[in-house]
Amino acid sequence: MAANPRYANGAARVKLRNRLKAEGRGCWICRAFGRPDAIDYSLPARHPMAFEVDELVPVSKGGSPVDYANVDAAHRACNNWRGNRSVAQVLALARGERARKRDATSRKW
Ligand SMILES: [Zn+2]
Asked: How far is the CA of 18 from the centre of ligand 1 (A)?
């Protein structure tokens, strides 16, 4: 039976979660967009601002769910928003949004 690798590696996954938590990692997606990135690690798992382990290369695209180099911390809501976007797509959107904000504030009508 083909097991979902995300759950097949339960112990390794827990270790990885704990490692990111111990580092007090902020949300990489909020950071990309220039928003406050702090994660309150005490929030319940179903809270939109709760901590989730986000695979940079998604498991569905061959990324490892237990490789420290392939994961970062994200808010649950940000992770949901990201969906199937690649890291490059997220960064491109963030650059676009930041450029628009810069233009909006530098323009004096
Ligand atoms: Zn976030």
From this structure: 18
